[in-house]
Amino acid sequence: MSVDVGTKAPDFTLHNQDRQPVTLTETLAKGPVVLAFFPAAFSGVCQKEMCTFRDSMSELKHVSAQVLGVSTDTFFALKAWDDQQKLGLPLLSDYNKDVIRTYGVVNPDMIGLKDIAKRAVFVIDKGGVVRHREVLDDARNEPDYGKVKSALASL
Hints:
Layout: E1 13-16, E2 21-23, H1 24-28, E3 33-37, H2 44-55, H3 57-61, E4 66-71, H4 75-85, E5 91-93, H5 98-102, E6 106-110, E7 113-117, E8 119-124, E9 130-136, H6 145-153
């Protein structure tokens, strides 16, 4: 399955790095969401991506946008990574891999890691409709941050 631009984003509830449940629809009630799937905490490109989103938070707050990072890491690993990097954004554990399957962003094998998240970004408007989608097949690449910001600015 895949979630495309113009479709309703499937709802989910996952636990963040502080073991608190985070539900997409509840987060959308506050404004648009940048749903950023990443392969693994403590990896170079993922760190760069999440730090870029962290450093863009003041810009994103102008449009009331919230970034949710999602990986298949445990919330223990996500907590340690957040503490180390001072990311300050919700990092959600999709340990059971349900959400990556629902959104169609499963990487079946990345250098021996099975069924982890591809690097992917979805911009979801307050009504729950996907306005931007970028799924990268090569995890060494980062998303196009300019397109994410343009999608948010158009909301």
